[in-house]
Specification:
23% of the residues lie in helices and 24% in strands. With 365 residues, the chain is of the alpha+beta class. It has a single domain, classed as L-amino peptidase D-ALA esterase/amidase. A six-stranded mixed β-sheet has the order 4-3-12-11-10-9, with helices on both faces. A four-stranded mixed β-sheet has the order 1-2-5-6, covered by helices on one side. A hairpin with a 2-residue loop joins strand 7 and strand 8. The two termini are 21 Å apart.
């Protein structure tokens, strides 16, 4: 399926990385498992199944032993995320980041804990405990969410098969059953390179927005589809999970500033962070690793100077552009999907979208 740029547009002003994906940040890996089975009426606990799991690894080493500096931000807290409070307090992430559906958070977290225990026999004995980081969106419109069908073996497969390079988008992984602006949403990603030579990438699990609010590069696309390709009933109030990665040497406080700018990228697509939406951002830097057991009580971290420097502003711009494009990629890459009880989420028609972008002067005629 096409990505936004395949429609003849060049969103933003900063260049992308090689894959225009979060994996353009050196060392970052992504793994996904998609679960699709059954059709027809909902049988709670049995199906139909339209769900999955997405794993983001900040690096391919032992994350517990080499933590990454991180921050989280909440735009609207109607969500069931796990592990965020310790990230806020300590400013580090020590496990892979997992995305799934709302009721699967505990099972996914349990699987991540097992994964980390196997890698680190000292956890719970001489090294304290471990803080799994799991985010979620509600995919119950299409999926038998009560069945909690993402099992430990699926989480392990996503972690073991995580890789760099291109990232599958649309109705895959944790985005298999999600909606975006009343269309089929899912996983989307994008990246930017700054003039200072840093890379920033975003990955989103899109499950938010009302149809009439959708904008694509300023074009009121949602208005053109206001009465067409609508689901027969309204999906639950949605959410969005955003993961930001960068190789810029930033402190946890600076990463928090980056995470706050993700809201501006969402707003460009028409998002309003509705009352029933769980909207969260996780940001990390691969440049500053924190050893679990430092050799000395005091050690040095690098950080970009902020006062009077354009470097931070360029990173802010990279966040806004990457988040906007990642959301739109989640839409253009998605395909129409029917789930439980015949509920259908239609794909945003990319041929009509391309025509609209040309009509409004956003794409070459």
């Amino acid at each position: 399926m096409p990505r936004l740029r395949d429609l003849g547009v060049t969103p933003g002003v900063l260049p992308t990385g090689r894959y225009n994906a979060i994996t353009d940040v050196p060392g970052v890996l992504v793994g996904q498992v998609t679960l699709i089975a059954g059709e027809g009426p909902l049988r709670p606990g049995h199906g139909p199944i339209r769900t999955g799991v997405t794993a983001i690894l900040p690096h391919g080493g032992n994350l517990f032993q080499e933590k990454v500096v991180a921050a989280v931000r909440t735009f609207n807290g109607f969500g069931k995320a796990m592990g965020f409070e310790q990230v806020r307090e300590l400013g580090t992430i020590e496990t892979p980041i997992l995305l799934t559906n709302t009721l699967n958070v505990p099972r996914v977290a349990d699987a991540v804990i097992d994964y980390m225990l196997a890698e680190n026999p000292e956890i719970g004995l001489t090294a304290g405990t471990v803080n799994p980081v799991v985010g979620e969106c509600n995919d119950s419109f299409l999926n038998d969410i009560r069945g909690r069908h993402v099992r430990a073996e699926h989480v392990l497969a996503a972690l073991q098969h995580a890789s760099g390079g291109p990232v599958a988008e649309g109705a895959v992984g944790a985005g298999t059953g999600t909606a975006c602006f009343g269309f089929k949403g899912g996983i989307g990603t994008a990246s930017r390179q700054t003039p200072a030579g840093y890379t920033l990438g975003a990955l989103v699990q899109s499950n938010f927005g009302s149809r009439q609010h959708l904008q694509v590069l300023g074009v009121p696309v949602g208005q053109h589809f206001r009465d067409r390709l609508l689901p027969l009933s309204t999906p639950p109030s949605g959410s969005v999970m955003i993961v930001l990665a960068t190789d810029a040497p930033l402190t946890a406080r600076q990463l928090g500033r980056l995470a706050s700018r993700a809201a501006l990228g969402l707003a460009r697509t028409g998002a309003i962070s509705a009352s029933g939406s769980g909207d969260f951002v996780i940001a990390f830097s691969t440049a500053n690793r924190r050893p679990h057991r430092p050799a000395q009580d005091v050690y040095t971290l690098q950080a970009i100077a902020e006062e009077g420097q354009a470097v931070i502003d360029d990173l802010f711009l990279a966040v806004v552009e990457s988040v906007e494009e990642a959301v739109l990629n989640s839409l253009t890459a998605a395909t129409t999907m029917t789930g439980r009880d015949g509920h259908t989420l239609y794909a945003l028609p990319t041929d009509e979208l391309a025509d609209l972008l040309r009509r409004y002067g956003r794409a070459a005629g």
